[in-house]
């Protein structure tokens, strides 16, 4: 039997992922996954036999969730912060996912993988461009939010290099970065296939986007109906409840 | 007093623009303006004293509508098809707008204007890329819909050349072309500022987009709430009624 106290360090807690009974180790002072990671795990498709990699993987929430939601062959995360890697590895062990999910320590700019190694790549990268927004010191939280250790271009370049031909890339980001995303897709030979804007309520402006691209292939973007997070009464919409709980 | 029969040719009709009593000459066999032109005229802003140009102007509906909706100094259209130019000029004369609205005959690739001549440029260009979709013979309708005589790149290049520094470009297009639009904006030094997706009903996927950019300037895209055309009962939404009738 697993004893929680063997897995948790000071300040950490164990949260329910509402999938397969899986739990995730989080630390509110360092990193807790947000709505964006949950939505990305609902948007990305990993098919039977496919090898998946998550860039800027934090505490590994996306590979762990995708291992529960899909029939992929293997799930991996790449994370630059050692304490996040350690947290993710303990979550993987706690959920008895060793062998199916693996967390790697490394920099997306020098990702420790051979080219064209993955069929599906996901990324929930830092949103705020260098030089924008109030930059806090390089704490774990700041590194997850600001492009301190990697830029949007680093992430897209890595995805392109590591994907097989016709492999799929799924990313969550902010709408304000969309022009840059499409310019970088063009530069790194990713063809945008699906765009979905996300907004809090039906009346509010989109504040998140989900985008899918394939390595090479012709560009013909399909735009999906916007994903709405909350009903007018403040409860999650049916679609978000399904992503989180079903 | 104006006599309609002096202005109309065979097959043409005079439609109400619901603004200032203005009318527009249309020919269902050649060109009638659509929802896209109406939405673009509601999206584009021409401020007091500004000079406006509409590319791929067809029967001139956009400069005529903008002359009614805004306090701009002058409104112009550029159109390659001589019979459309003739139709637009007769609409301008019928509405007694000579001197305020002018229609030019010419090709966007060799637009007959000096660089940096306009403060605001609009475009409702042909949507369908060369080699895509069922191409009809080069009739007036086909030229308005397919990139037979000008491409998206021709339009964006012309807008960039003809805009003053910090001038504004407004375009309506299809969501499937969004990646290309942003790549071309980057190439021709236009900074995307506003994106608004348009969808028929709340439950349907977006099928049109409105995008605003400025010549030079920093890119920080704002995404507006999607514009919905129809209520569930099939009637126009309040916002669309205001664009059309108020």
Structural write-up:
- The structure is a homodimer of 246-residue chains.
- With 246 residues, chain A is of the alpha/beta class.
- Chain A has eight helices and eleven strands.
- The first copy, chain A, has helices at 4-7, 35-43, 61-69, 82-94, 140-145, 152-162, 178-187, 238-245, and strands at 13-16, 23-26, 51-55, 74-79, 101-105, 118-123, 163-173, 190-199, 208-215, 222-223, 227-228.
- In chain A, the strands form two sheets. In chain A, strands 3, 4, 5, 6, 7, 8, 9, 10 and 11 form a nine-stranded mixed beta sheet that branches. A two-stranded antiparallel sheet of chain A has the order 1-2.
- The radius of gyration of chain A is 17 Å and the shape is globular.
- The two termini of chain A are 26 Å apart.
- The mean pLDDT of chain A is 92.
- The interface between A and B is medium-sized, with 27 and 27 residues.
| Helical content band of chain A | 25-40%
SSE succession of chain A: HEEHEHEHEEHHEHEEEEH
Give the assembly state of these chains.
homodimer
Biggest pleated-sheet summary of chain A: 9 strands, mixed
The span between the termini of chain A is 26 Å
Number of helices of chain A: 8
Enumerate the spans of chain A where pLDDT stays under 50 for 5 or more consecutive residues. none
Beta-strand segment tally of chain A: 11
What is the gyration radius of chain A calculated from CA atoms? 17 Å
List the helices and strands and how they pair.
The structure is a homodimer of 246-residue chains.
Chain A: H1 4-7, E1 13-16, E2 23-26, H2 35-43, E3 51-55, H3 61-69, E4 74-79, H4 82-94, E5 101-105, E6 118-123, H5 140-145, H6 152-162, E7 163-173, H7 178-187, E8 190-199, E9 208-215, E10 222-223, E11 227-228, H8 238-245
Parallel strand pairs in A: 3-4, 3-6, 4-5, 6-7, 8-10, 8-11
Antiparallel strand pairs in A: 1-2, 7-9, 8-9
Helix pairs in contact in A: 2-3, 6-7
């Amino acid at each position: 039997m697993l004893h929680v106290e063997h897995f948790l360090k000071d300040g950490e807690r164990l949260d329910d992922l509402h999938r397969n009974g899986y739990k995730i180790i989080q630390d509110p002072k360092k990193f807790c996954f947000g709505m964006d990671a949950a939505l990305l795990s609902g948007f990305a498709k990993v098919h039977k036999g496919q090898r998946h990699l998550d860039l800027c993987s934090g505490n590994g929430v996306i590979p762990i969730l995708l291992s529960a939601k899909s029939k992929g062959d293997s799930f991996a995360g790449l994370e630059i912060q050692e304490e996040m890697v350690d947290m993710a590895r303990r979550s993987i062990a706690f959920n008895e996912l060793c062998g199916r999910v693996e967390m790697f320590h490394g920099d997306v700019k020098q990702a420790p993988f051979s080219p064209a190694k993955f069929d599906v790549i996901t990324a929930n990268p830092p949103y705020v461009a260098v030089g924008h927004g109030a930059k806090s010191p390089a704490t774990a939280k700041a590194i997850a939010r600001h492009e301190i250790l990697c830029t949007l271009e680093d992430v897209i370049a890595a995805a392109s290099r590591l994907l097989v031909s016709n492999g799929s890339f799924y990313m969550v980001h902010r709408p304000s970065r969309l022009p840059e995303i499409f310019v970088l897709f063009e530069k790194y030979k990713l063809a945008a296939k699906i765009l979905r804007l996300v907004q809090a309520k039906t009346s509010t402006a989109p504040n998140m986007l989900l985008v899918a691209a394939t390595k090479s292939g012709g560009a013909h973007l399909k735009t999906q109906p916007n994903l709405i997070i909350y009903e007018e009464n403040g409860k999650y919409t049916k679609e978000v409840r399904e992503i989180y709980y079903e």
